[in-house]
Structure formats: structure tokens, C-alpha cells
Amino acid sequence: LTPALALAADVHPISMNGHGEVRATPDLVTVNAGVATSGPTAAAALAANTVRMKQVFTVLEKMGVPQRNIQTTQFSVAPQYSNTPGNEAPRLAGYQVTNQLTLRLEDISGLGKALDALVTAGANQMNGINFTIQNPGPQLERARADAIADARLRAETYAKAAGVTLGPILSISEGAEAPKPMYRMMAMVAPSPVPVAAGEEIVSADVTVVWEIH
Q1: Of 64, 73, 113, 118, most Cβ neighbours within 10 A?
Q2: How far apart are alpha carbons 118 and 98 in whole angstroms?
């Protein structure tokens, strides 16, 4: 990319923006799931949580999820209080232990079965599913080419209308964007496996091109 140039007084420029985007099917899904348990004591809540989490890890191992794709993202032990009448101070009712995981699943077609398996194993929290493209490089390359073509078409249209011609390119600058999701409507909840829709991702590029005009 060429940085902005200090133009000579006799150089007449035209600047135009261009946009390009490519849609692609995601090939990676990230799932945030976890287990929350309660008990009269912190030890009891933790023991119950540990049993369920071991079941979750066992299921993930059976699913063939690599260890590198499993990460603990939150662990907390919090006291729980009950409401009391009048001006009495809240009473300690027990403790809640929360253990959250982030899973990266490279087999999107098996996501529904994976969600079923997690819930059956004891996961009682699902805090988000995110579809992405592992390597958006090829799509970004195409989007950039389309953005340049879009900018040139616009510049040629304006130049023709103004009675001038495009000369050499003086500069190109880019404002890249992260992939954007496009969702298809998810099917109604039905018997196992859970129906999910990956939709599409939009990989886009925006450029600003400056030409000399004659």
C-alpha cells in the first residue's frame, strides 16, 4: 500500500472509495458452555461441580475434541443469600460454583450432537455459539480485488461525466474489516440432535484509491 503523497501543485487528483465482499461458509465454531452448581457449603457446591465437569470432559474426549481446543475461561465460587423480611440482613443460603469452558469445534456438521452430549453430561449453561472462518486469507484477497475494481469503476464514471481521464494511481489505502456473520433462520427446536444453522460469513475490504486526472 502506498502512503498518502504530498501532491505537486500541477497534479489534479480524484479520490474514490471502493468496497468488496465475499461470502463463505464457516468451518469453525466456538461454543461457550459450562456447569453451575449450588450447595449449602462451598465444599459441597464444588464437589457437585467437579463431578459434572469430569463428565463433560469425558464426553469431549469421546467426541475427539483435542485438548488444545478446550480452555477454561471462568471459574468462580460465590455466596448465595436469601431475602429476609423487614430490615433484617440477608441470610447466607449457600454457595454457587461456576466453571465455564470455551470449545473450538472444527466439525460444524456435528455441532447439534455435540450440544446434546454436553447437556446430557451435565452442562447447564450455554453462553454463546460463534461461527468463523479459520483462514479467511483467500476470501480477503478476492474482496480486496473487488474493492479495487469497485473504486476504479466509480472513478471512471465520475471522470467520464466530468470530461477528464484517469491517469496513474497516486495512492491506495485500506480499511480492513473483520468477517461479519450472516445468519440463516434457525430451525425450531426438535428431537435430538439440536438443530443449528451456520449461516455465512462476509469477508470484506474497503479501499481508498487516488488517481491523477488529465
Answers
A1: 118
A2: 15
- Cα angle value 169/170/176 (rounded, 5°): 85
Distance CA 9, CA 199 (A): 51
CB atoms within 10 A of CB 97: 24
Per-residue pLDDT of the chain (214 residues; tens, 9 = 90+): 444 455 666 789 999 999 999 999 999 999 999 999 999 999 999 999 999 999 999 999 999 999 999 999 999 999 999 887 777 788 899 999 999 999 999 989 889 989 999 999 999 999 989 999 999 999 999 999 999 999 999 999 999 999 999 999 999 999 855 555 544 333 333 345 677 778 889 999 999 999 999 9
Q: Do 205 and 176 contact (CB within 8 A), yes or no?
A: yes
From CA 69, how far away is CA 57, in angstroms rounded?
12
**Whole-structure pTM value:** 0.71
